[in-house]
Amino acid sequence: MKTHRDITKGWPYPIGSSVKANGVNFSLFSKNSTAVELLLFNGIEDVKPSETIILDKKLNRTELYWHIFVPGLKAGQIYAYRVHGPFNPDEGYRFDAQKVLLDPYGKLVVTPKAYRRDLASKPGDNVSSAMKSVVVDTSTYDWEEDRCLRHTFIKTIIYELHVKGFTQNPNSGIKDDKRGTYAGLIEKIPYLIDLGITAVELLPVFQFDKQDAPEGKTNYWGYSPVSFFAPHSDYSSSKDLFGPLDEFRDMVKALHNADIEVILDVVYNHTGEGNENGPTLSFKGIGNNAYYILNPNGTYGDYSGCGNTINANYSAVRRMIMDSLRFWVSEMHVDGFRFDLASVLSRDQSGKPQQNPPILWDIQSDPILAGTKLIAEAWDAAGLYQVGSFIGDKWKEWNGKFRDDVRRFIRGDKDSISNFASRILASPDLYGHKNQPADTSINFITCHDGFTLNDLVSYNQKHNEDNGQENRDGSNNSLSYNYGVEGPTTDPIIEQIREQQIKNFLAVTLLSYGTPMILMGDEVKRTKLGNNNAFCLDNEINWFDWDLLEKNASLHRFVKGLNAFRLDTSLMDADYTLPLMEFLQTKQEIDWSGVKLGQPDWSSTSHSLAGVVKSSKKNYVLFLACNAYNKDMTFEIPDSEDFNKKNWFRIIDTSLPSPEDIVTLEKATIVKERSYIVKARSVVLLIAISI
After folding, report:
1. Is the pLDDT of residue 356 over 90?
2. For residue 373, which of 173, 546, 201 has the smallest C-alpha distance?
3. 432, 426, 408: which is closest to 613 by C-alpha?
4. Calpha distance 649→666 (Å, rounded)
5. Pairwise CA distance, residues 573 & 101, whole Å
């Protein structure tokens, strides 16, 4: 039905829906459309709008924006759009007035039970099965003096987790109605504190399309956004309409109270609308040739590997991305962002990489984002690889070369020693030309995409059969090794080697210069049974198995010890603090050695390396020895008296059983000999200190 409200012209700014004193203003960017209808709904499951307001082209349009003020409306109003215009895909136009469209600036999305992705891909009206937007007033939430934390990167240990997967397992101890939600995560904050985590990096929490997956599967990871402003509603335990917004903010506030930052994994490189065969949910039907990079024939430039690519350097899209980032910082209090396939953002409207991409400089220089953590996954799915050369001087980078080179060295590959040494030093070969601090490099071995640490040492091949794509998906080059048996084994020798290698990976990650990141569950040997691309499996494969916390308590203890060592919280007794952060910040030089002091072996067949590092204040010395060979090796140790220190103390030896594998100084064994036997496939850390 059409409205009889006394509507007025409204304003083009702010974009989206805005609550005013006596109504709501709506503004929509749509350059080439010929008409716009605003649809109002009374309930989520409504099969037709309660009102349809037709915007007048002369009254309700100012240049690129359609706008209208509707008196009497308030927060909680459900709405959507129909947008008229030419349908000529060859020229980039895909207007379809039969499709009900989300507001690109909507702060909340509701999904009816009847939602059908396929109906948005076919001709015909989809009003009864479409997602809709909700009018939101974010000013009413009580933040209770909460502020973004602004930890320095050098004091950061990142824990990458999936909101649902962290607590969805029935053995999580969370009540059924809160499992897999923002509220469930709140209840597990004590676990994160105990582990020593200072920042959580949440896999996508922007509203996404769960149905964007192979038939019979679900989009679990969430890399299929339909909104850049709305928190994913399925992660809310609340039945209230505003539950997703309030519960997300409750989670942020609770994490901040625990001194833990919140970093969002954001997907500004593509949307869930797919390619020319995909659905029309929002952007396609509002401004297809504005929002997406198109080929000359009107098909989609696919630099994301997901069917389409956001036209990030087009002016209106740049503004949307900036407004989205500002919203999540100013209104939702998040502390930072990890940009998925960030190199896509450097491409121009034809898909070519730019030397100075406007959107990246906008993000770096924006005052609202000042102090916000910005992390780039500095590559894309079309071969653009910018690790070490990403634009600007504020960005940190997921160091994919750290992952690969450390995997090669720990596995025992030839020709790996030189690169391994560079990765320990925060990759000066990549970042030295910028004179960047050590924390530019985000060091990780595993992430959501690929094997878990347990699987990295348990499988030679991927096992993605459950994904329904005949094991064709996922990387074929994981640099993994199973040590004799593919998958789980009861062989105690293989099990011992595997756990030792896991400890080696973790030790190198936490002891290297740079900012470390740990994948959820690696601290308890979480397995995905060899699946290295489990994006579409919402089951125990992806969920944290809390029974592993008891089963693999020794590894969990080891990770806690590493985190504490890095953060200087429990290595020393109360009267002495090791300034390890100062050491990592200033990138002290390492005097490299091999099994002989001062004689590092840089040959192609070398599998061992040792180094001595003196703190800038000269109050302690570290000796690190890494043996990736399959035999024990005896390393010469400098005389501690050469540094005016009395003794060496053994802090870490990954070959030893728990609890000897990592200890505090007060429990450390004194090493009086001038040599130390570093067992096959192990890492050792000694410290000489003035006490």
Report:
1. yes
2. 201
3. 426
4. 9
5. 61
